[in-house]
Predict the structure.
Amino acid sequence: MSNPKVDAFLTRSTQWHDEFVKLRSIFLETTLSEELKWGQPCYAYEGRNVALMHGFKDYCAILFIKGALLNDPYHILVQQTENVQSARQLRFKNVAEIEAIDSKIREYLNEAIENEKAGRDVTFKTPKEFATPVELIEKFEEDPELKIAFEALTPGRQKAYLLYFANAKHAQTRRDRIERYVTQIKDNKGMDD
């Protein structure tokens, strides 16, 4: 059943409007409920998010929340970055691309729904499975309280810090980033808190 909030979203959307309308028609033929979450049309099974539609500069996409669980026999799912563990996208640049794989989209949606019905979940890597930058290890040796505080953070916060620190190309930039967040880590806060 269509949701008035998604109607309003489509009324406002200019880029990808026709593509969103086509994708929505496919979603509305499933058993998923239609909602607006994070400002995007989102489709859920019994309150659990399964997929959403969203647009970018160069493409629009269906994002499968637990896409890593999907079989990908056609090799069309996209992992946005190497650090995305769960979500996968189907990307489109026009309505013709959507129409060309309409039946495949439906296969992926049906599998995603079945995964949700079965209660399947993605197994996420633990922070210990991510590389710890040498500069952070050195800082832990210099400041043991920082190490204790870091290990007390939630796994998600640890992961965010590790990825942010490690993404810097130069050692000095990594040291600067670590130094900038020492107080926040000791205050048991995430990067955006």
